[in-house]
Amino acid sequence: MEFTIEPTVVIVPGLRDHVPDHWQTRLAEVLERVRTVPPLEHDKLSLPARVAALDRVLSEVDVPVVLVAHSAGVMIAVHWAQQAGREIHSALFATPADVETPFPPGYPTADELNRHGWQPIPRRRLPFPSIVAASTTDPLASFRRVAGMAEAWGSRLVDLGDVGHLNPASGFGPWDRAGELLRAAVDLGRPSAVGQEAR
C-alpha cells in the first residue's frame, strides 16, 4: 500500500547495506518520493566514504528531505550533519549502533571502527529535528547509551521496547510503526512543531 509523504525520504542503511527483507527496504517500496544510499563497492567500512555517498545522494535531491537511518546508518547521518551545509527537514533514527562499545562476534571490532573513522560518536545538537527510536534489547547498543545520544542530539526519544536490533534477525521484516514514526518525523519538521520544541 503506497502512501504519500511530502518531503523526499532518503534512506540510510547500516553496514549490511541493502537487505531484501529489511523494514527500510519494505518502506522504500511503498513511498512515492524516496532515494536509498547505494552500497559502496570499495572501502565498505570507511565512514568518510559512506558520508560522501550520503552527500552525493542528497546533492541530487530537492528539499525538503527526511532522513530515515538505521543502525550504523544513524552514525553516518549524524557525522554528515556535523559538516553539512544544506537543509534537512527532519530525521527518523532507528536503533543507532553504539560504535564506541564492543559489538558481539560477527561485527566489526571497536579497533576496526576506530581506524575507519567511526569514533567518537558526535554529540553536538543536530541542526534539524529528529526522532530516535530505541530498543530495550538491542545487542548493538544499550537503551541508556542511546537515550544519552538522543539527549545530546536534541532528538525526541521513542521507547520501542523489546525489538532487538530492529532487523530481520530480530523479526523485522515489516515494521508496523515505520509509517507512523516517519509521519511523526515529518510533522516534527513543520514550523509550528519546531517552535513548540524550542519552548
TrEMBL record:
Highest taxon above the source species: Bacteria
Pfam annotation, one family: Ser_hydrolase
Molecular functions (GO terms): hydrolase activity
Keywords for this protein: Hydrolase
UniProt keyword annotation of Hydrolase present: yes
The protein, known as: Predicted esterase of the alpha/beta hydrolase fold
Organism of derivation: Nocardia africana
